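Hi C.,

You asked whether I'd gotten around to modeling the 359-residue construct. I have! Everything is below, sequence then structure, no commentary in between.
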Amino acid sequence: APARPAGARAAAAAAPSVSGLLAGPAFDGAAARRALVTAAGDDYSVRVLTRRDGDRSRVVVLLGEAHLKSPEAAALGRRVIERFRTYGFEGYANDSPAARRFLSEMREARQISAARAPEKFGEGSTIDEARRLAARRRGTLAAVRRMLEAMPAAERGEVLAASARAASAGEAKDVAIVDGEGKTLLDAAGLRDMLTALAGGAYARVEASFVPRPVHLEAGHRPGLAERMFLRGSAVRRFARRAAAAAVAAYLLSPPLPLPLMHAAVLAGVSSILYVRIGDWIPRRLLDGRWGAFFPLRTGMIRGRDRTMARNIAAASASADGADPVLAIVGADHVPGIARRLTREHGFSAAGLDALTAR
């Protein structure tokens, strides 16, 4: 065992100064690119956009997901979000009764799908995983802090000296804090920064550096007319179908309904069904354009929210420290519309995954 340093004075001598430290782990563009290449496929769609901001290149990565997926696909999604320090996630911001009813129906449908085919749909949304990541990292960091503060000063000095040597020698994994499963919670560089910050009273800066900065992409969203029509559309369609079925059943009974009333009921049901089906038949690229305004029951939950999320993604990218790339985790149906709005309204242009390493 190495000689134990003589308390806090030796620890201060072995430690680097706080200035220049605490910038957090540098973004690893190559690792992020590898994770995205692996994830792209049936469960995820990936688009990269860039914008010049003075001498910096702002990079946005759109990760479109299926909200239900296999355990293997969920693991790929977790691997992606762990590579980014700044990310945003979709989250419907509407507390109206119609919205709550719609979200409840969606949750029930997902639970049924997961129960029927757990091998294909057994895992939930990567968006939910992104919400939990920051809280989990903050809790881990707090637990490590408590553990280090409980150490005698001499032992902390020994750990600090060892972590500083390992970090400077490029052997960050050789001195680390790991959990019960062997996963690294804090490598040598992180441990060095943590101990230095605790000695200098700068723990808040460490937390800000090592804990991801999540952004709620639908903050400030205001539902438009088409969105409100969509939320009420399911009830309208159910009523129209039931009216048509009731009219046909009543006609077969005696005495029949008046003919004009029956015709009106049947026409309402058939037209409602055809209206939705025609919206399903039109290609998505047309619905993203002007045609989408004519089919609010098909696009009502997409277009307005795309606008809000694109605005918040652009704002998050502009404020990201060190021009870090911003990862936006959204449903796959939102990716084309968000990409289009970022390009047309916020000055971004399409790019490839190489933009993550060419910065």
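If it helps when you're writing up: The beta strands are 44-53, 56-65, 86-89, 177-178, 184-186, 213-216, 326-331, 349-351.

Thanks,
B.
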